[in-house]
Design brief:
By secondary structure, the protein is of the alpha+beta class. 28% of the residues lie in helices and 29% in strands. The protein is built from nine helices and 14 strands. The chain starts with a helix and ends with a strand. 38% of the residues are buried.
Length: 317
Protein backbone atom coordinates (compact mmCIF):
# COMPACT_ATOMS: atom_id res chain seq x y z
CA UNK A 1 0.00 0.00 0.00
CA UNK A 2 2.82 2.40 0.86
CA UNK A 3 4.47 1.97 -2.55
CA UNK A 4 1.19 2.43 -4.42
CA UNK A 5 0.38 5.52 -2.35
CA UNK A 6 3.84 6.91 -3.05
CA UNK A 7 3.37 6.47 -6.81
CA UNK A 8 -0.03 8.18 -6.66
CA UNK A 9 1.16 11.02 -4.41
CA UNK A 10 1.73 13.37 -7.38
CA UNK A 11 -2.06 13.40 -8.00
CA UNK A 12 -1.54 12.49 -11.67
CA UNK A 13 -3.25 9.61 -13.44
CA UNK A 14 -1.45 6.25 -13.36
CA UNK A 15 -2.76 3.15 -15.10
CA UNK A 16 -3.14 -0.13 -13.26
CA UNK A 17 -0.58 -1.64 -15.61
CA UNK A 18 1.92 1.13 -14.87
CA UNK A 19 1.44 0.76 -11.10
CA UNK A 20 1.75 -3.02 -11.34
CA UNK A 21 5.01 -2.82 -13.31
CA UNK A 22 6.46 -0.31 -10.86
CA UNK A 23 5.93 -2.51 -7.82
CA UNK A 24 6.15 -5.91 -9.48
CA UNK A 25 2.59 -7.18 -9.09
CA UNK A 26 -0.40 -7.87 -11.36
CA UNK A 27 -3.10 -5.34 -12.20
CA UNK A 28 -5.49 -7.39 -10.07
CA UNK A 29 -3.13 -7.10 -7.10
CA UNK A 30 -2.90 -3.33 -7.67
CA UNK A 31 -6.70 -3.10 -7.64
CA UNK A 32 -6.80 -4.93 -4.29
CA UNK A 33 -4.23 -2.58 -2.80
CA UNK A 34 -6.19 0.44 -4.03
CA UNK A 35 -9.36 -0.95 -2.44
CA UNK A 36 -7.44 -1.47 0.78
CA UNK A 37 -6.28 2.17 0.69
CA UNK A 38 -9.87 3.30 0.19
CA UNK A 39 -11.00 1.14 3.11
CA UNK A 40 -8.62 2.98 5.48
CA UNK A 41 -9.77 6.43 4.39
CA UNK A 42 -7.70 7.34 1.32
CA UNK A 43 -9.79 8.74 -1.55
CA UNK A 44 -8.76 7.33 -4.94
CA UNK A 45 -10.36 8.54 -8.16
CA UNK A 46 -10.74 5.97 -10.94
CA UNK A 47 -11.41 7.00 -14.57
CA UNK A 48 -11.80 4.36 -17.26
CA UNK A 49 -9.08 4.63 -19.87
CA UNK A 50 -6.95 6.98 -17.74
CA UNK A 51 -6.26 5.10 -14.55
CA UNK A 52 -6.12 6.11 -10.89
CA UNK A 53 -5.23 9.32 -9.11
CA UNK A 54 -5.47 11.03 -5.73
CA UNK A 55 -7.68 14.15 -5.65
CA UNK A 56 -4.70 16.27 -4.58
CA UNK A 57 -0.93 15.83 -4.10
CA UNK A 58 0.12 14.05 -0.94
CA UNK A 59 3.38 14.52 0.97
CA UNK A 60 4.70 11.30 2.47
CA UNK A 61 7.35 11.18 5.16
CA UNK A 62 10.81 10.15 3.98
CA UNK A 63 14.40 9.98 5.17
CA UNK A 64 15.60 12.12 2.27
CA UNK A 65 13.02 14.84 2.94
CA UNK A 66 13.77 14.93 6.67
CA UNK A 67 17.49 15.30 6.03
CA UNK A 68 16.85 17.97 3.39
CA UNK A 69 14.97 20.13 5.92
CA UNK A 70 17.63 19.78 8.61
CA UNK A 71 16.64 17.05 11.07
CA UNK A 72 19.29 16.30 13.71
CA UNK A 73 21.21 13.39 12.19
CA UNK A 74 22.27 12.09 15.62
CA UNK A 75 18.70 10.85 16.11
CA UNK A 76 17.99 7.30 14.97
CA UNK A 77 14.93 7.42 12.66
CA UNK A 78 12.32 4.82 11.80
CA UNK A 79 9.55 5.77 9.35
CA UNK A 80 6.68 3.28 9.22
CA UNK A 81 3.61 3.20 7.04
CA UNK A 82 1.36 1.44 9.52
CA UNK A 83 1.76 0.46 13.16
CA UNK A 84 -0.29 -0.27 16.26
CA UNK A 85 1.50 2.35 18.37
CA UNK A 86 4.69 4.34 17.87
CA UNK A 87 5.19 4.40 21.66
CA UNK A 88 5.08 0.58 21.70
CA UNK A 89 7.56 0.48 18.83
CA UNK A 90 9.96 2.67 20.79
CA UNK A 91 9.57 0.45 23.87
CA UNK A 92 10.51 -2.53 21.70
CA UNK A 93 13.51 -0.60 20.35
CA UNK A 94 14.68 0.08 23.92
CA UNK A 95 14.09 -3.53 25.00
CA UNK A 96 16.24 -4.73 22.11
CA UNK A 97 19.08 -2.40 23.17
CA UNK A 98 18.64 0.06 20.33
CA UNK A 99 20.53 3.33 20.32
CA UNK A 100 18.96 6.51 21.71
CA UNK A 101 17.77 9.12 20.95
CA UNK A 102 15.31 7.55 18.54
CA UNK A 103 12.36 8.83 16.54
CA UNK A 104 9.59 6.52 15.35
CA UNK A 105 6.86 7.98 13.14
CA UNK A 106 4.05 6.42 11.14
CA UNK A 107 1.69 7.41 8.34
CA UNK A 108 -1.09 5.44 10.04
CA UNK A 109 -1.45 4.44 13.69
CA UNK A 110 -4.05 1.79 14.47
CA UNK A 111 -4.14 1.91 18.25
CA UNK A 112 -2.72 5.24 19.37
CA UNK A 113 -3.31 6.25 22.98
CA UNK A 114 -3.88 9.62 24.54
CA UNK A 115 -3.94 10.50 28.21
CA UNK A 116 -6.28 8.69 30.62
CA UNK A 117 -6.53 5.68 28.29
CA UNK A 118 -8.23 7.55 25.44
CA UNK A 119 -7.78 6.62 21.79
CA UNK A 120 -5.79 9.08 19.66
CA UNK A 121 -7.06 9.45 16.07
CA UNK A 122 -4.54 10.13 13.31
CA UNK A 123 -5.91 9.32 9.83
CA UNK A 124 -3.62 8.28 6.96
CA UNK A 125 -0.62 10.38 5.83
CA UNK A 126 -2.29 13.58 7.00
CA UNK A 127 -0.94 14.32 10.48
CA UNK A 128 2.17 13.92 12.62
CA UNK A 129 2.18 10.81 14.79
CA UNK A 130 5.52 10.31 16.49
CA UNK A 131 7.38 8.95 19.50
CA UNK A 132 10.79 10.20 20.59
CA UNK A 133 12.95 8.62 23.29
CA UNK A 134 15.90 9.92 25.29
CA UNK A 135 18.02 8.24 27.96
CA UNK A 136 18.54 10.23 31.17
CA UNK A 137 21.08 9.28 33.83
CA UNK A 138 20.03 9.85 37.44
CA UNK A 139 16.53 8.44 37.66
CA UNK A 140 13.00 9.84 37.28
CA UNK A 141 13.57 13.00 39.36
CA UNK A 142 15.71 14.42 36.55
CA UNK A 143 12.71 14.65 34.22
CA UNK A 144 10.22 16.35 36.56
CA UNK A 145 8.13 18.76 34.48
CA UNK A 146 9.42 17.39 31.17
CA UNK A 147 5.94 17.00 29.65
CA UNK A 148 5.34 20.74 30.08
CA UNK A 149 8.65 21.57 28.41
CA UNK A 150 7.61 19.31 25.52
CA UNK A 151 4.51 21.50 25.21
CA UNK A 152 6.83 24.49 24.80
CA UNK A 153 8.70 22.60 22.04
CA UNK A 154 5.41 22.00 20.19
CA UNK A 155 4.33 25.63 20.63
CA UNK A 156 7.64 26.86 19.20
CA UNK A 157 7.30 24.52 16.22
CA UNK A 158 3.78 25.79 15.52
CA UNK A 159 4.91 29.41 15.79
CA UNK A 160 7.56 28.82 13.13
CA UNK A 161 4.75 27.94 10.72
CA UNK A 162 3.13 31.33 11.22
CA UNK A 163 0.57 30.64 13.96
CA UNK A 164 1.17 33.38 16.55
CA UNK A 165 -1.03 32.26 19.41
CA UNK A 166 -0.60 28.61 20.45
CA UNK A 167 -1.83 28.00 23.99
CA UNK A 168 -0.68 25.49 26.59
CA UNK A 169 -3.19 23.84 28.91
CA UNK A 170 -1.82 22.05 31.94
CA UNK A 171 -0.56 19.43 32.03
CA UNK A 172 0.14 18.72 28.34
CA UNK A 173 -2.41 19.89 25.77
CA UNK A 174 -1.55 22.35 23.01
CA UNK A 175 -4.38 24.53 21.75
CA UNK A 176 -5.14 27.24 19.22
CA UNK A 177 -7.90 29.62 20.32
CA UNK A 178 -9.20 27.11 22.84
CA UNK A 179 -9.27 24.19 20.41
CA UNK A 180 -6.93 21.22 20.85
CA UNK A 181 -4.35 20.77 18.11
CA UNK A 182 -1.87 18.46 19.82
CA UNK A 183 -1.71 15.84 22.56
CA UNK A 184 1.38 14.70 24.46
CA UNK A 185 1.88 11.44 26.35
CA UNK A 186 5.06 10.58 28.28
CA UNK A 187 6.02 7.09 29.40
CA UNK A 188 9.10 6.01 31.35
CA UNK A 189 11.16 2.85 31.18
CA UNK A 190 13.31 2.91 34.34
CA UNK A 191 16.32 0.65 34.88
CA UNK A 192 18.09 1.40 38.20
CA UNK A 193 19.48 4.95 37.82
CA UNK A 194 18.78 5.13 34.08
CA UNK A 195 15.47 6.60 32.94
CA UNK A 196 14.40 6.14 29.33
CA UNK A 197 11.62 8.61 28.54
CA UNK A 198 9.28 8.03 25.60
CA UNK A 199 7.58 11.19 24.36
CA UNK A 200 4.49 10.48 22.28
CA UNK A 201 3.08 13.35 20.23
CA UNK A 202 0.00 13.54 18.02
CA UNK A 203 -0.27 16.80 16.06
CA UNK A 204 -3.26 17.62 13.85
CA UNK A 205 -1.89 18.87 10.54
CA UNK A 206 -4.76 18.13 8.14
CA UNK A 207 -7.51 16.41 10.09
CA UNK A 208 -10.91 15.31 8.80
CA UNK A 209 -14.23 15.26 10.61
CA UNK A 210 -14.66 11.56 9.82
CA UNK A 211 -11.52 10.68 11.80
CA UNK A 212 -12.53 12.87 14.74
CA UNK A 213 -16.16 11.76 14.96
CA UNK A 214 -15.77 10.32 18.47
CA UNK A 215 -13.71 13.21 19.92
CA UNK A 216 -15.60 14.91 22.75
CA UNK A 217 -13.79 18.26 22.87
CA UNK A 218 -13.18 21.19 20.48
CA UNK A 219 -10.31 20.52 18.07
CA UNK A 220 -8.55 22.17 15.16
CA UNK A 221 -5.70 21.52 12.75
CA UNK A 222 -2.82 23.50 11.26
CA UNK A 223 -4.06 23.44 7.65
CA UNK A 224 -7.37 25.13 8.48
CA UNK A 225 -5.57 27.77 10.58
CA UNK A 226 -2.92 28.54 7.97
CA UNK A 227 -5.10 28.30 4.87
CA UNK A 228 -2.58 25.84 3.41
CA UNK A 229 -1.18 22.42 4.24
CA UNK A 230 2.28 22.77 5.81
CA UNK A 231 5.05 20.24 5.16
CA UNK A 232 4.84 17.35 7.58
CA UNK A 233 8.52 16.57 6.97
CA UNK A 234 9.45 20.11 8.00
CA UNK A 235 7.23 19.92 11.09
CA UNK A 236 8.68 16.55 12.08
CA UNK A 237 12.26 17.77 11.65
CA UNK A 238 11.67 21.02 13.56
CA UNK A 239 9.84 19.25 16.36
CA UNK A 240 12.53 16.59 16.68
CA UNK A 241 15.22 19.27 16.90
CA UNK A 242 13.22 21.13 19.56
CA UNK A 243 12.88 17.90 21.57
CA UNK A 244 16.63 17.32 21.40
CA UNK A 245 17.18 20.82 22.81
CA UNK A 246 14.64 20.23 25.61
CA UNK A 247 16.18 16.89 26.60
CA UNK A 248 19.70 18.32 26.55
CA UNK A 249 18.52 21.13 28.84
CA UNK A 250 17.05 18.64 31.33
CA UNK A 251 20.12 16.42 31.06
CA UNK A 252 22.29 19.40 32.04
CA UNK A 253 20.21 19.89 35.18
CA UNK A 254 18.31 23.07 34.23
CA UNK A 255 14.95 21.29 34.20
CA UNK A 256 11.53 22.89 34.04
CA UNK A 257 12.83 26.04 35.74
CA UNK A 258 14.39 26.98 32.39
CA UNK A 259 10.99 26.79 30.65
CA UNK A 260 8.71 28.12 33.40
CA UNK A 261 8.41 31.70 32.11
CA UNK A 262 7.81 30.80 28.47
CA UNK A 263 5.28 28.11 29.44
CA UNK A 264 3.34 30.62 31.53
CA UNK A 265 3.37 33.09 28.64
CA UNK A 266 1.23 30.54 26.75
CA UNK A 267 -0.88 29.40 29.73
CA UNK A 268 -4.55 29.37 28.69
CA UNK A 269 -5.80 28.75 32.24
CA UNK A 270 -3.95 31.54 34.06
CA UNK A 271 -6.22 33.42 36.49
CA UNK A 272 -9.21 31.35 35.34
CA UNK A 273 -11.62 29.47 37.64
CA UNK A 274 -10.98 25.76 37.10
CA UNK A 275 -12.10 22.32 38.23
CA UNK A 276 -9.42 19.66 38.72
CA UNK A 277 -10.76 16.09 38.65
CA UNK A 278 -9.03 12.83 39.47
CA UNK A 279 -10.28 9.34 40.19
CA UNK A 280 -10.53 10.03 43.92
CA UNK A 281 -11.50 13.69 44.19
CA UNK A 282 -12.58 16.95 42.58
CA UNK A 283 -11.34 20.35 43.65
CA UNK A 284 -12.05 23.89 42.46
CA UNK A 285 -10.04 27.08 42.54
CA UNK A 286 -8.28 29.76 40.49
CA UNK A 287 -5.34 28.74 38.27
CA UNK A 288 -2.21 30.73 39.17
CA UNK A 289 0.34 29.33 36.75
CA UNK A 290 3.02 26.74 37.52
CA UNK A 291 5.98 26.44 39.88
CA UNK A 292 9.59 25.60 38.95
CA UNK A 293 8.85 21.88 38.91
CA UNK A 294 5.85 22.23 36.57
CA UNK A 295 3.19 21.71 39.24
CA UNK A 296 -0.10 23.54 38.67
CA UNK A 297 -0.69 26.29 41.24
CA UNK A 298 -4.32 26.54 42.31
CA UNK A 299 -5.67 29.11 44.73
CA UNK A 300 -8.32 27.53 46.96
CA UNK A 301 -10.01 29.87 49.45
CA UNK A 302 -6.97 32.13 49.50
CA UNK A 303 -4.47 29.28 49.90
CA UNK A 304 -2.06 28.37 47.09
CA UNK A 305 -1.89 24.61 46.45
CA UNK A 306 0.59 22.87 44.12
CA UNK A 307 -0.92 20.00 42.12
CA UNK A 308 1.36 17.56 40.34
CA UNK A 309 0.62 15.58 37.18
CA UNK A 310 -0.95 12.17 36.87
CA UNK A 311 -4.36 10.95 35.80
CA UNK A 312 -6.12 14.28 36.24
CA UNK A 313 -8.42 16.39 34.12
CA UNK A 314 -8.47 20.20 34.26
CA UNK A 315 -11.42 22.18 32.92
CA UNK A 316 -12.15 25.89 32.87
CA UNK A 317 -15.35 26.65 34.82
Amino acid sequence: MQRVLSLLSDSKFHSGEELGEAIGVTRAAVWKKLKKLESIGVTVHSVKGRGYRLPEPLELLSEAALEAVGINTDVVRKILFETESTNSDVKQHITEGGALPVLVTAERQLNGRGRRGRQWASGVAKNVTMSFAWRFEGGPSVVEGLSLAVGVAVARTIKKLGIPNPGLKWPNDVQIDGQKVCGILLEMVVDEDVCNVIIGIGLNVEMTQEVMVDVDQPWTDLASRLGRTPSRNQILADLTNELVAVCECFEEGHGMKHYQAVWQAHDVLFNQPITVSSISQQRMGIARGIDESGALLVEEDGVLVALHGGEVSVRRR
